[in-house]
Amino acid sequence: MLILLPPSEGKTRPDAGGALDLESLSFGSLTATRALLLRTLIKVCNGNPKRAMQTLDLGPTQSEAIEINARLDDEPTARADAIYTGVLFSALSLATLDDASRTRADESLAIASALFGLLRPSDLIPAYRLSGNVSLPRLGTVAGRWRTPLPRVMREVVGDGLLIDLRSGTYTALGRPPTDLAPRTVTMRVLHEHQGTRKIVSHFNKATKGRIVRGLLESGADPATVDDLHDALTALGWQVERDGQRLDVVVAEI
User: Fold this and answer.
1) Whole-angstrom Cα distance, residue 174 to residue 103?
2) Where are the domains of the chain?
3) Nearest CA to 123 among 94, 156, 161, 163?
4) How many CB atoms lie within 10 A of CB 159?
C-alpha cells in the first residue's frame, strides 16, 4: 500500500538541524531532478527579489520566503512530517502515533512535493516555498519536470499493492499514476451531508483525510484492493460509498 499525500503550503522552519543532503532522501531515482530544481530555485531567489516574488507567485508579505529559498542548501532540516504543518498534517498528527503506527507511516506514506517530487515522512528537508503550478526560468513548469519520473517511482513502490492517491489537483498534475496501475489506484472525496444535500468542503476535506489516514495506520490495515479499503474504512466507522475507483466518505458534522 502506498498513500500519496499533498504537501502543505504552510511549513515550519526548524530552529536547528543539518544541511540538506539530497543523496539521503528516499526515492533516489529522483535525485537528479531534485538537484536541478533546487539549483534553479536558489538562483532565482538570489536574483532580483521582485522578479523572484513574481516567479513564485508570492505576495508582498512573503518576502522572507525568498530569503530562505536563497540559502536552501544551508538551511536547517527536519523530518518532512515536522516541516509540513497544514490542516491534513495537523489532523494526521504523525508525531503522536505509537511506535508501530509511526513505522507504518514511514513505510506506506509518501508526500508530494514540487521541489522534491515525493518524500517519506522521515526524510530530512528544509522549509521551502515552491508550489506545483510554478514555472521556473529555462526549466518551464515544475509539473513538467516531474511528469515522467514520478509515475515510474509509483510503479516501483506500489508493486502489486494498492495506490491511495489523496493529492490535490495541483500535485496530481506533477505525475499521474501510470495506466497499468489504474485498476489498483483509488482516490477519495469527502462529502458533507446536511438536510439531504451533499457538498464538498475544502478545509474539512483535508482534516477528514488526515483522520482517515491516521485511523488506517493505527488499525494496521493493509488493503490490497479498492473493496478492501472500503471495508477497512467502514470498520473504522466511516460511511463510505464506492463510485468506480473513487471512494466517497460521507460525513454529517463539520
Assistant:
1) 27
2) 2-251
3) 94
4) 9
- Give the span between the Cα atoms of 11 and 89, in whole angstroms: 11
pLDDT tens by residue, 115-135: 999 999 999 999 999 999 999
Q: What is the pLDDT of residues 151-183, one digit of tens each?
A: 999 999 999 999 999 999 999 999 999 999 999
72, 38 in Cβ contact below 8 A?
A: yes
Are 225 and 231 within 8 A, CB to CB?
no
Length of the chain: 254
Query: Residues 35, 40, 43, 49: is their CA dihedral positive or negative?
Result: negative
- Cα separation, 38 vs 129, whole angstroms: 11
- The answer to whether the predicted template modeling score (pTM) of the entire model surpasses 0.85 is yes
Closest CA to 238 of 223, 228, 248, 224: 248
What is the spatial distance between Cα 124 and Cα 21, in angstroms, rounded to a whole number? Answer: 8
Find how far residue 83's CA is from the centre of its chain.
12
Between CA 11 and CA 86 the distance in angstroms is 7
185: β partners: 163
**Cβ–Cβ contacts within 10 Å for residue 163, how many?**
21
Task: Tally DSSP H helices, then E strands, for the chain.
Answer: 11, 12
Q: Which three cell numbers stand for residue 223?
A: 488493503
Burial, 14: exposed, middle or buried (Cβ in 10 Å; 0-12, 13-18, 19+)?
middle
